[in-house]
Structures are given as C-alpha cells and as structure tokens.
Amino acid sequence: MKIDGHTRLAAVIAKPIKHSISPFIHNMAYDLTDTNAVYLAFEVDRENLEQAVENIRLHQMLGANISMPYKQEVITYLDELDESALLIGAVNTVVNQNGRLIGYNTDGLGFFRSLSNFHIKGKNLTILGAGGAASAIIGQAVLDGVEKVCVFDLRDRLAGHQEKIEQLSRRLGHPIQLLAVEDLVALSDAVNQSDLFINATGLGMDGKSLPIPSDFAFPKGLLVADMTYCPAETPFLRLAREQGLQTVNGLGMLLYQAEKAFELMTGKKMPSEEIKKALLEKLEI
C-alpha cells in the first residue's frame, strides 16, 4: 500500500466497532482497484458523533460507513439524504461530495443480495429488533413485494419504537405489526406463518445470548438469518441449524452493502467475489 500526500481516508463509525471486518474489505478493494485510500475503524462515543461526522468534511475524507447504534442519529448531521435513506429513515453510508455530506442506505440491498436463491416477493417476514438495520431490511422487503411484516422487540422498548414503526409504515405505504417478543404465542404464530425469520437485535455477538427462548421451535422450510457475522454462527443460528433449517449469517450482507458503499465513495466497481473468497479464508468459514 502506497501512502502519500494524495491518500484519502474513509472509515466506519460505530460503538463497538473494533471487531469490524469492514477495514479488511475496503482496504483490499482499494488495493485491487489501485485506489489511493485507507479505511479505518473509529469507535466513537455518542457525545462525539457530531464531531466525528464533521471530520469527514474537515479531513476531506471519501466518506464513512455508519453502524450500530448511530444509523438514525447520524441523519441530523448530514446535508442531504438519497431516496432510500429518506424512505427507510436510517443511514449506513455517508459520501463526501465536495464538502457536502450525503446519506445513503445500502443495508437492505446488501442483505437480500446475500440470500442467493430466496426472493421475498409475496412472502412473509418476521424480524427481531427495530433499529436502523432492521428498518433498512423492512424497507427493501416492501420495495421487493413482501406480503406481511411482523416486528418483535422487548416490551419495555415498544413505546419508544411505536412512532418510528408507524412512520416507516406510512412512508412505505405498507402495514407493519410491532409486537412484544415476550409474547411467545404471538411470536410463534408469526414465525409459523413466515418464510424468513431475522435476528436484527445484535444479541448473540457475545456467542452466548439468545433473543428467543432456547426451546423455541421453528417451522420446517423457514429461512433463518442473523445480521451478526462475528461469530459466524450465533446461538440463534445454531438453534435453527440444529432443527434442520437453512441459516444465513451477516457476512454476505456486510460484503454486498460494502460493495455499493465502495461504488458510491469511489465511482469504481468492487471486485466482490475475490474479496468474498479472502473473507471466507480469513474467518475460516
């Protein structure tokens, strides 16, 4: 890697973020496409988020990716949103266009691209969690023709999520149910009617936590996904696999949302298949 006075900077901003594989993906892409740039991981406290975003402009960075828990909060500090980010109400990519910070959302596109032989049109979706990444998946699912969407979160968080989900439903023009994950009858009913069941809570990153009871029974034929990619198999996915179901972790989503973000920041096409092979070797998957 050549670093000189023309080298540009890009980063991922989140907390926690030191586990991130995004620097590996983007720096490999820079190397393969002869792009004079370096990509780092910035672990930023909430009170420093505004300054971190302003630094994108101050240091003439290419841009930044935004991860949990700042995908919605970051909108306040941007100059403009593209249609997808405006519709979803969350940003995962900020592009510096000559000092103007533009917010995009590539999460939903990346997620559904990672489900190689699955198409959501006319099917039912149940998702755990109601954060920015979940909103991106719901938004893309609606755009792709999903039939029914059920969102489950902790009962004590429902009041805080209700208005956001209602706004998302209005923007998308599609009904979205918000229910308590503690209501196991409702959860079981929703999952039994679903074709795709996603964990978007972040629970399981520690390799121990489960967002559902350990004796939860999945229906046959269900596709089960977790937006976490580290560990490669969360307890949620392990529970589904042990019941004979197909599972998908968040690595594909990470790669394909990064592919679009790379294109937006550099104007170049990411060599995704070569990077995917390197990722699988790195993570020993």
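Next protein, fold it too.
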Amino acid sequence: MDINTIIDTIAACGLIFRGGFHTYPEDDALPTDGTVVLVGNAGPAMWSAFSAEVDETGRQALEHPLDDWISRHLEAYAESWGARVLYPFEGPPYLPFQRWAQRADAVFPSPIGPLIHPDFGLWHAYRGAFLFDGKFPLPPRDDRPNPCETCIDKPCLEGCPVNVTGPEGYDVAKCVRFLHSKAGLDCMASGCQARRACPVGASFRYDPDQASFHMTWFRRSQS
C-alpha cells in the first residue's frame, strides 16, 4: 500500500493522515505483522465536507450523524484497499486511540486533558484507523516537543468558568451541568472556553457552527 494514496483519498472528505505505526506482538487487539494508519481532522476541512453532504435536518434525524458519515466513507475506502477500520467510539471496551496517537504523532496530554499538537493545538481529533495486514513504508514520526512545556502562563487552566479540571482530572458531570445552564451558552455556541484560551493552533479553531455541533452532541451524550 502507498501512504500517499491514503492521504490523497481521505482528503476528499476533509480527513488527514494522523501518523501510523507497525504493530508488535505485544499490541492488544492487533495482528503481529500489520500497519496501522490513523485518520482524523484538524480545523474546518472535515466539517465543510460533512456539512455539504448532511444538512441540519439529516443531522437531527440520526443518533450519531458524524460517526455514521465518517464510517460510511472509511469503510468504502477500506474495502477497496483490503483493510479493516477501527474506531475510537466503538466499545466498551474501547481501543487505546490516545496511546496509539502518542506513538504515531507529536501529540501530548495537555493540562486540561485533550492531546495537544504543535500545529493544531487542541483543535484536532482522531476519527478512525485503517489496519492493514503486513508492513509498508510510513513517513517518519514527527518528533517535535510538547508545546505546553514552554507555555509559562497556562491560560487553559484559567479558561474554564467553573474549573472542571482539577487534581483528580476532568469532572465531566460538573462540565455538563454548566453546559445546561444559561452561563454555559458561550461554550455551547463557540466551543469550550478552556480550549479557546490556548494560544497554540489558533488558526485551526472550529468555526461557530462546527463548535456548536460538537458541544451539542457532547452534552447530549453525557445527559
């Protein structure tokens, strides 16, 4: 398989190559002689493609509109390549996408939890992975350092109005209660204020329509 073919093909639906790796015998749920190619998004490209195919009425009619749309495209690509598709949203048990991501790319846990990337900041996601039998060449892993290590002020830690990130981690229930309140309307309309406070990857921030969609489905999934 040629990695450039994968990159060019997934670009049609606004998705991007998020790194890859060759499997080892100790990798759970993976063959011992395979190649994993992670697929995700950064910025607005995926949202533009999704919005062009699935309008607001269609989104409201489906339980998981974005996941269904992504699955439809990735499964079609995988079938033509003789690959399997793995997803971060299928479970429990859930596949270790966060660990795979750190193995494949220059991403690191941020002070507020989500993985941060040197270019994309907190405005990116992993949507799936292609699993191929056998090994083929992959680009070298990006080895840039964690941008949080040189961030002195850590504005993300002061960005949340209700301080949902503490010593014990992210308080999901507290966050969701806030999003249901009048005070949470800004986060619902424009995205998490803590994420928006981070200066890294500002040019990749989601526009209001995309941010509102993700916040709405996050709140719905936790309510």
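About the second fold: The two ends are 42 Å apart (CA to CA).
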